[in-house]
Each structure stands twice: as structure tokens, then as C-alpha cells.
Write a structure and sequence with these properties.
heterodimer, A: about 600 residues, alpha+beta, Beta-Lactamase, 5-stranded mixed beta sheet, 12 strands, about 15% strand, elongated, B: about 130 residues, alpha/beta, Rossmann fold
Chain lengths: ~600, ~130
């Protein structure tokens, strides 16, 4: 017995047969298991017959002088029957598939049963009358023959059983001294061999029968599996069909309800199908267009877009095409500008079956775009012109070239000039952000010497910083550092950062400007000692109209667009912009740009402020 | 081309307010002699009569815009060598680049600072040396 707590299978309810083995087991093993199982199934019959025949013999051959011998024989018979029954139970309860072991035990049981009958013959035959001897011989012959039914599924178990009966009986017959018995003793082996031959034949029949059964079981199992598979596939097909139907309905719904026009053409540009949006777009009812040539009906005016040669190239190219400006003609003769995409559908052979065209009217969009452009241009010119007069006049007065002005009056003209300038800044910022966000912003990139650009910017912003009594200090010995950028816009960014830093610095403070080479990037830092960026404002500092608090606008000026513009400008120049807290208080704003290769060998000084 | 200082400037501009400011700026701050022309159609004759060192043109004017006037000046043998500076509120980079390629000396964007305008003009003038 195994001591492991491995899970075991108990074949108790049914006779274990080859069918209980794993389907993958060797078919011959399964046939063998069936034969052993048959032996055990028949063994109960054998035990019952043994007991029945034992009773008959005991009654028929009873004599008081053989009382002890008979009792002894019965004890042995019952012991063997009990042992065989125990074996039968054990087989039913077994947890293994060691068929050879169970066959061995069955063979031992068969031999024991046979020998028991042999001994009965040997003991009772010589001592009884002629009639009784004939009866006994008949019974023994019957037992030998009957054993075929019980043991023949494994022929050699029968051979052992029959030999157990025959050998003691032959000995008694031969030793009896009677010529007839001696001849009988010689005939019994022949009878035995004949029986063995029959048992062997039956064994073969059993084997082929069981083999047929195993084959049938296997085929039935395979059939079941196949049926299950077919059923599953059928179900999948059914599901797939439902899905196809559903997606077909969905597609129809999409096309019907879609706000964009969808048309289907064949390879010759004949209209096959169209949706209601296409009807609306072109003003044709479905019936008026289907079967007609789409090129002639819908796109006759476009000499550069969809014409015959374009269509031929498109169909032979078998690639989707998108035309973002396509002139189309409506049924009422009105010309509209559309955006269309054409997608060819091809079969497995690569032939175009149809072309799906999807499009929409963009006439109004284009008009709106034109109006916006015109508006922007007008805004730019019409606002700046009067501002030129306003700021210019005030500047001339404030500069003193026209003579001295009374103090109160000069204070007011100063205020007017400053606010005029603010208005101008706002207009410039709005125009910038509009251009950037509509993608129309054009940079003029060139190789820029960043160090000299910073020096120039510092000079430009000096008077602004003076107004706040703040000093702008450039780091010592800026090595020549080149980047590819738009210098005018870079000055705009640097100016914005410098003016912010100056505005938020404490009076008498210093703003340090540094230039560092960080690997492949150049970083320009503007460091102030201001109050720092409030926590709640950090996330949106580079958003439009972002200011820490609305009073700042009044106190410090600015439009709230400056940093948003800076970020977009720097990003357009393939750089990045950010800020960080400065150790010891204040904030560092920086931007980084890709350095040009010639900087690689440059010996960059460490950051430091010019005293 | 020239070593003489910038003294005579002719400005073609339709907006009277800006005319006055530019005149004050150039005369009082820049100590220059200034001729203002309000109608671009009369500009070429006025320029020929005034003989300026440098011409300033507004960009957008009724009747004829600055770039058209500039091209006309370039076509006339009497004015074709005059340095021309544009003063403009409208700065389309492509158009500016085209004008520079035609020989415009430079552009000054509106609004300009009147106290700096003479310096800006002189700086452009000096690039001719």
C-alpha cells in the first residue's frame, strides 16, 4: 500500500473494465483488463456452483465411515470459497490498475478450487461403489467442462483449474489396478487437452470480442467528441451569423444616421448605394443617382481633384485616398467645397469590388476660417493703428522732448501710457496665441548664439527691471552656445521670464540668469527671490489667462497669456519649459533647447551670478 | 553707399494723427527735416520734389498700399535707389521677406516708440554704409 495521501479512485460500484482506464491507455491493456474483469465476474458463478455441487456430492456419497473426511473436505472447500469471495470483493474495491496482480491471485484461486475437486475425486473415488464412482467421474468431468464457462477468458487460468482436478484423479485411476480405469486415466489428458483447446479458442473469441467492444467504445467516444465539436461549431456559426446580422444592421443604422455622406461606387464610378446624408449633401434622391456615373454627376468641375484619370489611377492603386478640398456640384447647380475620403474594398484576388466614399460639406467651415483670418488681420491693424497714436503721443509727452509738464499731469499721462502699453501687449499676446493654436504660426529658425542673445535681452529689459528696482545679473563667462531657434521669439520668451521675475522680486533684489549645457540640451535659467508659486497655481501656470490671483493683474500688469505663449513657442522650437523652487526661497523658471553639435566640446562654466 | 548722416526723411502715411507724431518724433527728437505725404497717389512726385535721404512707407493705405507704392518707386529711375523703410502693423513674414528681397531697407513695426524712432531709422541707415 502506498503511504502517500495521493487521491485514489475506488472502482467499487461497477466491474472495472478497460473502459475505466484513461482513454489514452494502450488498447491491448484495456482488452486485457476486460478479460480479467470477466474472470472476476464469472468467479461468483464458480463459487456458487462449487458449493451446490459440493452439497450434491456430499448427499449422494454420504457414509458414516467417511464422516470426518467429508467434514474436513467441506472445511477446506468453504475456506477456498471464502478466500475466492474475499478476492472478488478485494477486486471490486481495488484502487490500482495492476491487472497482472489480480490475474495472478485469480489463477491461484482457480488452481486451489481445481485441486480441491481433484482431492475430492482422489479421496472418494476408490472407496465407493461402481455406481457412485460413475457418478463421481461424471461430476468431475462436468466440473472440468463447466470451468470453461468460468475461466476461459484467460485460457491458462482454466488450464491450471482443470489440471488441479485432473492430476490427482488420473493418479487414482491409474493406481486403481483396473484395466478400464487405467485406460480412462490415459484418456483424461486427451479430454483435458481438448478442453484446453476449446478454452484457448474461447479466450481468443473473448479477446476479439473485448477488442471489438473497446473499438466500439473508442469510436463512440470519438463520435461523442466529434458530435460535441460539431455542435459547438454549429453554435459558433449561429453566433457568428447573429453577430454578422447585428453588425449589418448596425452598419446600416450608422450609414443611415451618419451626418456624413456615404456613397458606394463600383470600379467604373457608378453609384451603387448612398445614405440620406449624401442625399442631403448633393440634393439628389437615391433613385436619381443609383446607376449613374458619380464623376459626371457629382464632381464634374474639379479638374485637379476627382476626374477620370484620377479615378483610374486610384482604382488601379487600390489605396485609400483623402481629398481635403474637393469641388462638388449639387443637383441645383450650386458649387460646394467638400472633404472626401475614398476607400477601395477588394476581394481575395485583389480586385476592387466597390469604393466607399465618405465626405462632408466644408464650404461654411472654409468661409468661417476666412472670416476669422480677416477678423484677426483687422484686429491686428485697426487696433494697433489708434494705439500707435495713443502710446506715441503719450510717450512724446512723457519723454520731455516737448517741454516740462506739471507733476500731476505727468503722473496721469504716465498711467495712460502704461495702460496703453498693457492693451497693446494683450493684443499682441492674443494674436500670438491665436496664430499658434490655429497652427499658422511660422517660425524663422536659424542658428542663434544663445549667450549673446541673452546679453541683448538683458539690455532690453534693464529699464523695465529698474522700474521695480531689481537688478538683472547674468552668470559670468557665458561660453558661446549655439542653438537652432527663432531669435525674435526666443527674445520674447526670455523677456517674458525676465519681466515676470523682475515683477515678483522684492525691491532691491537680484534676478540671476544662467546658461548651462546639460548633455544634449542647453538650459537657460531665470532665478528670482520672489514669494514662490502658490501650490494651487502650479498645475495651471502655463495655461491661458493663468494668474495666481486677480489682484496680481492690477498690481503687476500682464495678460495671463505670457507663459502659455512661452511654452508653445519653446515647444515649437523642440524644447521644454518649466519651473522649480529655488533653494533658499524664490523660483527658477527655465527653458531647455537642443544644443547644436558644435557645443559638445565647449567648456561650459558653472552657473553663477555676475556681481 | 553713403557716409552722410540721415537728415531728410519723407513719410507716406494716410493717418493724420500718426503723421503728426512721426513728424514731432523725427523733427524734435531726431532733428531731421521731414516731409509728410498723406495721399500715396501723389507720393512719387512729392518724393522727387523733396529729394529725401530715406523714404518711410505705411503698409495699408487707401488707394494704393505701401508695397505697391514701393514697387512703383523701384520702377522709376529717379527713385529706384532710394532706401525705403516700412512702418507696419501687419507683419506677414512671407511678404516682409519678399520686400526685403526687392530691396526694402527694413521694417519698423507699429506701434513704435516715438522717442526711439529716430535711432531706429539711423540704425537702418547706417547698415547702408
Amino acid at each position: 500500500m502506498s503511504t502517500q495521501a495521493a487521491p485514489t479512485t475506488v472502482y467499487s460500484r461497477e466491474f472495472a473494465t478497460g473502459a475505466d482506464l484513461e482513454p489514452a491507455a494502450n488498447p491491448e491493456r484495456r482488452v486485457f483488463a476486460d478479460r480479467v474483469a470477466h474472470l472476476y465476474r464469472q468467479s461468483i458463478l464458480g463459487i456458487l456452483l462449487t458449493l451446490l455441487v459440493g452439497v450434491i456430492i456430499s448427499v449422494e456419497l454420504w457414509a458414516p465411515r467417511y464422516r470426518d473426511v467429508t467434514i474436513m473436505w467441506w472445511l477446506i472447500t468453504i475456506a477456498i470459497a471464502a478466500a475466492r469471495y474475499g478476492l472478488y470483493r478485494g477486486y471490486l474495491q481495488r484502487t490500482d490498475h495492476d491487472e497482472e496482480k489480480w490475474l495472478r491471485w485469480m489463477a491461484i484461486g482457480a488452481l486451489a478450487a481445481g485441486v480441491n475437486w481433484g482431492i475430492a475425486g482422489a479421496v472418494f473415488f476408490p472407496s465407493h461403489t461402481d455406481d457412485q464412482q460413475v457418478f463421481l467421474a461424471f461430476i468431475l468431468a462436468g466440473l472440468i467442462s463447466g470451468g470453461i464457462a468460468v475461466f476461459s477468458s484467460v485460457w491458462w487460468t482454466y488450464a491450471l483449474y482443470a489440471a488441479g482436478i485432473m492430476v490427482p484423479f488420473i493418479y487414482v485411476l491409474a493406481a486403481f489396478g483396473n484395466r478400464l480405469f487405467a485406460e480412462l486415466a490415459m484418456l483424461v489428458p486427451v479430454f483435458y487437452v481438448a478442453n484446453i483447446a476449446v478454452a484457448y479458442r474461447l479466450d481468443r473469441v473473448f479477446s476479439s470480442g473485448f477488442r471489438a467492444k473497446e473499438d466500439y467504445t473508442r469510436i463512440a467516444r470519438e463520435q461523442d467528441a466529434m458530435n460535441a465539436q460539431i455542435e459547438e461549431q454549429l453554435q459558433e456559426l449561429l453566433n457568428a451569423r447573429r453577430e454578422v446580422e447585428a453588425s449589418g444592421r448596425k452598419l446600416t443604422l450608422f450609414a443611415e444616421r451618419a451626418p456624413i455622406a456615404v456613397l458606394e461606387f463600383d470600379a467604373n464610378a457608378t453609384v451603387l448605394e448612398m445614405n440620406p446624408a449624401a442625399e442631403n449633401l448633393f440634393g439628389y434622391a437615391i433613385g436619381e443617382l443609383i446607376g449613374r456615373n458619380g464623376l459626371q454627376m457629382l464632381f464634374p468641375v474639379d479638374e485637379f481633384g476627382v476626374n477620370d484619370s484620377w479615378w483610374r489611377d486610384f482604382v488601379s492603386g487600390v489605396r485609400p485616398a483623402t481629398l481635403d478640398r474637393l469641388r462638388c456640384i449639387r443637383r441645383d447647380g450650386l458649387e460646394i467645397m467638400c472633404e472626401f475620403s475614398f476607400t477601395p474594398l477588394v476581394n481575395d484576388d485583389g480586385d476592387v469590388i466597390s469604393i466607399i466614399a465618405q465626405g462632408r460639406d466644408i464650404t461654411q467651415e472654409l468661409e468661417a476660417e476666412r472670416l476669422k483670418k480677416e477678423f484677426t488681420s483687422t484686429l491686428s491693424h485697426e487696433l494697433r493703428t489708434p494705439l500707435t497714436s495713443i502710446i506715441g503721443s503719450l510717450q512724446l509727452i512723457n519723454s520731455g522732448v516737448l517741454g516740462d509738464v506739471e507733476k500731476d499731469m505727468s503722473d496721469l499721462t504716465m498711467i495712460a501710457e502704461r495702460n496703453g502699453q498693457r492693451l497693446l501687449d494683450l493684443i499682441n499676446d492674443l494674436l500670438d496665441i491665436e496664430k499658434i493654436e490655429s497652427g499658422k504660426f511660422e517660425l524663422s529658425p536659424q542658428v542663434v548664439s544663445l549667450d549673446s542673445l541673452l546679453r541683448d535681452t538683458l539690455v532690453l529689459n534693464k529699464s523695465f527691471a529698474d522700474r521695480y528696482n531689481v537688478r538683472l545679473a547674468l552668470a559670468e563667462q557665458l561660453a558661446p552656445t549655439k542653438v537652432e531657434a527663432d531669435p525674435k521669439r526666443l527674445v520674447q520668451v526670455a523677456t517674458n521670464l525676465l519681466s515676470n521675475a523682475a515683477k515678483f522680486s522684492p525691491e532691491g533684489g537680484t534676478v540671476d540668469i544662467t546658461l548651462e549645457l546639460k548633455g544634449a540640451l542647453v538650459r537657460v535659467g531665470v532665478h528670482d527671490r520672489g514669494p514662490g508659486i502658490p501650490e494651487a497655481f502650479r498645475g495651471r501656470i502655463f495655461s491661458r489667462f493663468a494668474q495666481a490671483d486677480s489682484t496680481a493683474t492690477r498690481q503687476k500688469g500682464g495678460t495671463g497669456l505670457g507663459l502659455a505663449i512661452c511654452r508653445r513657442l519653446i515647444e515649437l522650437m523642440h524644447g521644454s519649459i518649466g519651473f522649480e523652487d529655488r533653494p533658499g526661497g524664490g523660483t527658477t523658471f527655465y527653458f531647455e533647447l537642443p544644443a547644436l553639435n558644435e557645443n559638445a566640446g565647449a567648456n561650459m562654466p558653472q552657473q553663477g551670478a555676475l556681481q | 553707399m553713403t557716409a552722410k548722416p540721415l537728415e531728410r526723411v519723407c513719410y507716406v502715411e494716410d493717418d493724420e494723427d500718426i503723421q503728426r507724431i512721426v513728424r514731432m518724433s523725427l523733427e524734435r527728437v531726431g532733428k531731421m527735416t521731414v516731409e509728410i505725404v498723406g495721399d500715396p497717389m501723389l507720393a512719387i512726385d512729392a518724393i522727387i520734389g523733396f529729394k529725401p535721404d530715406l523714404v518711410m512707407l505705411d503698409w495699408m493705405m487707401p488707394g494704393m498700399d505701401g508695397p505697391t507704392l514701393f514697387r512703383k518707386l523701384r520702377e522709376d529711375p529717379r527713385t529706384k535707389d532710394l532706401p525705403v523703410v516700412f512702418i507696419t502693423a501687419k507683419a506677414n513674414p512671407a511678404e516682409l521677406a519678399e520686400l526685403r528681397s526687392l530691396g526694402a531697407l527694413g521694417t519698423i513695426s507699429k506701434p513704435f516708440a516715438p522717442k526711439d524712432l529716430p535711432d531706429q531709422l539711423r540704425a537702418l541707415w547706417n547698415t547702408l554704409r
